[in-house]
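Example record

The entry below shows one chain as it appears in the dataset: sequence first, then structure tokens.
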Amino acid sequence: MLNYALLESKIDEYARQFQNAHPFPHLVVDDFLEPTVAEQAYANFPEMEKMDALKDIRQYKAQDPNISNFDPIFGKIIFDHLNAARFLEIVERISGIRDLKPDQKLYAAGLAQSTDGGFLNVHVDNSSHPVQSWYRRINILVYLNPHWSEEKGGHLELWSQNMSELIAILPSFNRMVMFATNKSSWHGHRRVNTPDGDTRKSINIYHFTEESPDGSQYYHVTSFRGRRKERVNQLVYPIDNFVRTAARRLRKRKDEHAVLFKEENEK
């Protein structure tokens, strides 16, 4: 289902690209899925109304980890390939990160979709898994958007820590983006501009390890920040991040959005 001939023949080249990329390690691969698989996934992508909606000051999109609710093609792509040993080995060799663990529960992953006006503001992902003592290390995005143009927006943005360097990636059809996930992997996607009714579609998964990227123990919720011209977001998001982090630390009950990495930290 994946284009293994391409992936396995270029591992060394991809590893150099990933590890030398700015503003942080990432890789873009086109023709990632076999053509017929990509077409089938696009044709069977669920309508937004059938997915869980997320709309607040941070994002406007649909996200759904319940793959069993949708066409079997998505379960095959994710569980039989993206989360399977063969692809994990490829990712390990490209990234240099060993002992990667797939998340079969698809925490904060699965299928994602944004309609006209949809956005995901700049953020770093929640540091850890909600159940396992694992740190989030790799983000895999597979885009399913035929004939997507610059005018339609929705570019994936990768930002440097000080917000001075930006890479913008068009979510083109059958394009895979892989990037390292850590304390400074700031990313998001631009507002979608599709008055024609088209939507920005992707498959999103994460891979984890038991050790953190820097070897220390830490925890943070999904934390947002404003772009340089977003004055309101620059003021609001630090408060929002602080409040949500404090709420997680005060609340023992785990929830679907963000949990503490170590159970003892919740006491």
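Notes for this example: The first strand starts at residue 26 and ends at 30. The mean pLDDT is 92.
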